[in-house]
Amino acid sequence: MINLPQKFLEDMKEILGEEYDDFLKSYKDRKTTGLRINNLKISVEDFLNMGLFNLTPISWCKEGFYYDDEEVRPGKNPLHEAGVYYLQEPSAMAVVPNLDIKEGDKVLDICAAPGGKSTYIASKLNGSGLLVSNEINNIRVKALGENIERFGAKNVIITNSSARELEKIFKGYFDKIIIDAPCSGEGMFRKDEGAIKDWTYDKVLECRSIQEELLDRAYNMLNTEGILVYSTCTFAKEENEDVINNFLSKHEDIALLHMERLWPHKVKGEGHFVAKMKKNSKVESKLKMSKIKKLTNEIKDFKEFEKKFLNIKIEGNLELKGDNLYLAPNEYPSLKGIKVLRSGLHLGTLKKNRFEPSHALSHYLKKEDVKFVHNLKLDSKEAMDYLRGNILNTGESRGWVLVTVEGFPLGWGKESNGILKNHYPKGLRIKY
Fold this sequence. Notes:
Strand content: 25-35%
GO molecular function, one term: S-adenosylmethionine-dependent methyltransferase activity
Number of strands: 21
Active site: 233 (nucleophile)
Pfam family, one: Methyltranf_PUA
Number of helices: 13
Domain SAM-dependent MTase RsmB/NOP-type: 23-295
Family: Belongs to the class I-like SAM-binding methyltransferase superfamily. RsmB/NOP family.
Largest sheet: 8 strands, mixed
Helix content: 25-40%
Distance between the termini: 32 Å
CATH architecture of the largest domain: 3-Layer(aba) Sandwich
CATH superfamily of the largest domain: Vaccinia Virus protein VP39
CATH topology of the largest domain: Rossmann fold
């Protein structure tokens, strides 16, 4: 039996009453594991028809499925590297459906790393509208960028700023805001003993203070009739109902639409808290849109690459930042004053007399968008060799080639004299 903190146990007994013993018994059960299918790359039906894993549907997420981590390791499957699915704790998948996302929405994920909610939001937006995916932690924001890149989303701005800094820019701007708040992590106890060691009641109170500030900042960034969803993976009343009730008492124009707890003794999941609210007052956003200089001669090498290696034309807000070329979102607000990791889709780098495509571009494209494709079988040694960064013998010399697994992009290679030089990013290369 897991050795749980005494103060935590006392609080749970007070909250749960007769259900307390059932709650304690749940800690003898194995942790739950799930994956969520990326609809930007494949439909649920087509993925299931591949028959890869023994999957069971998650009732609150039509794209989500349980898997048995003792039977399979989907995190070590090349399709995971291709962004075909995302590994996510099942009860955490209950949050994003509460946002009621519609194509064209402007959405803020204010505490986004490592990217579970943001990738889900991006798939719901389906390339439309705007997602501002923010993470204040300088280390965690790197994983956020990698996961969004893997998903193939183009309409995402990744920021690395505080809620205070975001509020200065985005007052009254967003249609939907999600706060998956930093918390004391009590819902992690069953799967992470480190979370138990780190837990103190002082941490609960410290988190509550941060959570209350995040809600107040988010309130000011929410548009008329905007939806605000607050969630945690903790059970403490102080961080859940108390935080929400205090927030509602300060803002009469906010209506509580829905509030629920997912308990591990009631559902197959580690536990979550979700509150959905709506702003009823009228708000006027004065946010200015970015002005992008029309590029012509500066991107001739990119246009040459596009003509020679792609079957499509990439059109829209092309923006140069140094030598890096981006496809900025159609909804592109001015971002002066906040730290931006990525503004839209990174297309690649302009080098001396040539253009080098980015890893992000490879994941955005479909196999039919590219002239030259080297497709690998899922269970092949060659697929793993590519992910390890090894060269491949292809027998051709076609220049830039999109390397795919079962038709899903993994990354770029450059062919010459029958050898494909590997351009899979060094920081992502697998070691197993």
